[in-house]
Every structure is written in C-alpha cells, then in structure tokens.
Amino acid sequence: MSDRPHATVKVASYNIRKALGTDRRRNPLRILKVLQEIDADIVALQEADRRFGVRSSVLPQMLIDHHTDYVPVPLDVQQDSMGWHGNAILVRKGMEVTHHDIIHIPYLEPRGVVTATVETPGGAKLSVFGMHLDLSGLWRGRQARAITELAEAAQAQHPTVLMGDLNEWRIQSGAFREFGRSFAILDCGPSFHSSRPVGRLDRIMHCNRMVPRDYGVHRSALATTASDHLPVWAEFAVATGTKGTS
C-alpha cells in the first residue's frame, strides 16, 4: 500500500449498555461525551437500543445532533430504534454512506449484525461490520463463520473492518479461529469491566488493505462510569481509489 495514496481513518467500538453507567444512572449525554473524547470517524455501538417494548434508541437524535459531529447510519428498522438488535453505526458528518444493511445470523439469543459502506472525505472507501456475539461459545463460532463469509465478499470490493463485543475471553476460541482465517484481530487491551478491566471482550478486526497505525482502549474518568465496557479504538492507513484485492 506504500505506493498508493492513502487516508487515515479512526474507528471505535463501544458497548454502551443502554447508557446505564456503573453508578446505575442512565445518562445518554455521558455516552456522547465519551465519544467526543475518542474523536473517531466511525463508531460501532452495541446495546444502543432498549431491549424490551418498542426498543427505542437510548441516544435521542436531538442529543446526537446537538452534542456530536455524528449521524447514525440509517438501517430501515423500527422507527424509534437506532440499531438492529442494539447494534448501530455512527459516522462523522461529511462521510458518504453508499450502502447499508442488516444481517441475520444464527443465534441462541436474539443477535444481529449491521454493515455499511462508507466513503471518507479523504477518499477512502471501506466496508464496516458492527456486531455483538452470543454468550454461548458454540453459537459464537457459528456466528463468526457466517459473518466472516460475508466480510470476505465485502473485502473483495473495499478495505473491510469488523468491530464489536465478541463476548469471547479466550483467543483460542472457535470465533477467533473463524475471524482469523481472513482478518487480523487487534488486541486493543482489556475493556471489561470498566471499573477494573480484565476481559478483552471488545475487538477490532481488519483486512490486509488496512494498516494499523495505533490502537488501544479509551480509559478516562468519564468512560469508567458511563458503561461497564470501555471503548476500543484503532487508527488505520487505508488505500484510496482502489478496488479488488491487493
């Protein structure tokens, strides 16, 4: 990729726990302030909608408009929901979303995946997958296999990044084996529990057309109380104006 023009793109993944903090207070504005601290271009959210009833978004659109530089990727689901089974993607204003979709995956408990193709102002076009995998290891492996097959097809067209709460404690797991067939899995660091992080549950994975420049866990006083997960982030150099495999 060194002989091609490239753009820098920062992505993040954050399980916001329906905006319920470790202090047991539901505070959507606090979540948005954490996103401001991270300052990513693209964010994959998990648990962005309420679980029961109409499953409305826990981040009111008015707050997003007034307190961030983001717009939610439209997923054409329920009118009051931001995501699909709680998964949502936010992109910085000025980015063009040329494709978006929801993906049904095998599950024991209700799960889904969201995806979008995004073009940055710098000219990088990439496919993004956001996910929150099952608590069952057997089902996580099946879900990872299904997602990997779709992401492999996507990376034939654009650089591809996958992000989310994998609910996986062991790097030798079936889910990691499935993802690792075609994607590099970044170890951003422990992100759960936010008050004393030991679990590397939140992951960012990428194809070989994206070169990681830096990555890690965002830990601040605000993030420690905003959710029981800390956000993870990565900054990539991404080739611009290219199609096909490299």
UniProtKB/TrEMBL annotation:
Keyword set, alphabetical order: Endonuclease, Hydrolase, Nuclease
Pfam families: Exo_endo_phos
SUPFAM superfamilies listed in its UniProt record: DNase I-like
GO molecular function: endonuclease activity
Chain ranges of the Endonuclease/exonuclease/phosphatase domain: 12-229
Keyword Protein biosynthesis assigned: no
Protein name: Endonuclease/exonuclease/phosphatase family protein
Native species: Erythrobacter fulvus
